[in-house]
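Dear Dr. K.,

Following up on our conversation at the group meeting, I've run the structure prediction for NOL8 isoform 12 from Pan troglodytes. I'm pasting the input sequence below exactly as I used it, so you can double-check it against your construct before we proceed with anything downstream. Let me know if the numbering doesn't match what you have in your notebook.
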Amino acid sequence: MKVNRETKRLYVGGLSQDISEADLQNQFSRFGEVSDVEIITRKDDQGNPQKVFAYINISVAEADLKKSIFYVIQRDSSDEENSSIV
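The predicted structure tokens came back this morning:
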């Protein structure tokens, strides 16, 4: 049976300032083929990082998409400081 894969753009928030594209690529490649990772850091008026989040483009089957979303939710709920994905 052929698995139908679609390209999706996932938002992952609450990331550590020292997270890398490679870190995210490695973590999400277990669910599908990651084609692009974009990390965005919002800074305050003094240039201090305030918010770090990422968009991940991934080609993924529906069942694996649900697993990846559960992974992000589980990570967020178990990490009070919202540090990088481990």
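Two things stood out to me. Confidence is low (pLDDT under 50) at residues 80-86. The first strand starts at residue 5 and ends at 12.

Best regards,
J.T.
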